[in-house]
Amino acid sequence: MAATGGSGVSATQYDVFLSFRGPDTRDNFTDCLYQTMVGQGIIAYRDSEELQAGDRIDDLLRAVGESKICVPVLSRGYASSACCLRELAHVMELNESTGKPLVLPIFFDVTPLDVKLRTEVYVEDLEKHERRHGSEIRQRWEAALRKVAEIKGWEVQGKPHNEVIELVMKQVLHKLKVKLRPLDSKLVGVHEQVEAIMELLNVDSGPGVRFIGIYGMGGIGKTALAKIVFNELCLHFDGRWSFIGDIRESSNKNGLVDLQKQLESDIFDSRFMEKLTNTDEWIYSIRRRASSKKVLIVLDDLDKKEQLKKLVGGPDTFGLGSRIIITTRDKQILEEEEGILAYEVKQMDHDRALELFSLHAFNNVTTPENHQTEMA
């Protein structure tokens, strides 16, 4: 299964439709949930911006109807969004009439009682909608809220986000009849290397900050390894994570400010981004805001020491428990910085290289005997 998402809806049937109010959860819980689904090969849909035009609303509701599972992330601001309530009403009506999509609700910072409208949490928002859209629409949306509140889901308040996301993922994978995919099965011979890198990272080792450098020649698989490890670990970091790719190429074209901005936007709420203009201001801002945060960061394809300094500084930049992964062709960058644990990605032996070739050429790791003879 190939993962997809965004505001452009295709005819593809989605495995999961995420319904959520962007300002409440997009930059933390929902983003981490979405990325975890992508890492497991789930085709997930999330809208990338608030809907305005009627034609986009039609496309969105079509995506709901093409989804096997709907996961509404019910937050305190959920009922303030007419788009969210419109989605939910469509979902619940389809579910009642056809049995699809399956609904798996997440009660983010509300309780089922709030969603059943037995408290005042959603009342003011619903009154505003009634004044704008009429009483029939309000009744329809209230009915959808009450119905979804009756479904057993997950309450997030007071629980680590990674634990809730793990429970959600297990249920989603079970319902889709998909096995948990801890490693990318299309990458031949990576299991041992991933395990070695995980051992160096050792996220359960205690509160220290660890820098891990993955080095080796170009095209040998450093980025692929970093992506697998990143997908394995992101659940442990409550949405405080960032994967900055192609740093060598991006910094040569545009400098480091855009990459610094991306890093800070990934780790913190993008609504409160500062307007800064140079690399010194950005690294100071990152240090100031991140010093108490446990983060997971991948810096992919570094080729200069300055890139490391301007993007993450040193071990004192981030909070206890943080893990920073660097990929580079230049081992010297790692050797010049104290405290970086280095891992070399070595060239595949003949048999594994042949398996990888066979996988891509024949979609099977077992190469035909006559082809092996020709290759010998």
Overview of the structural elements:
The chain has about 375 residues and is of the alpha/beta class. It folds into 3 domains: about 15-175, Toll/interleukin-1 receptor homology (TIR) domain (Rossmann fold), CATH 3.40.50; about 190-345, P-loop containing nucleotide triphosphate hydrolases (Rossmann fold); about 350-375, no CATH class. It has helices at about 20-25, 30-40, 55-65, 80-100, 110-115, 125-135, 135-150, 160-175, 190-200, 220-235, 245-255, 255-265, 280-290, 305-310, 330-335, 350-360, 370-375; strands at about 15-20, 45, 65-75, 100-105, 105, 155, 210-215, 240-245, 295-300, 325-330, 340-345. The strands form 2 sheets. Strands 1, 2, 3, 4, 5 and 6 form a 6-stranded parallel β-sheet that branches. Strand 3, helix 4 and strand 4 form a beta-alpha-beta unit. Helix 6 (about 125-135) packs antiparallel against helix 7. The model is unreliable at about 1-10, about 50-55, about 180-185 and about 365-375 (pLDDT under 50).
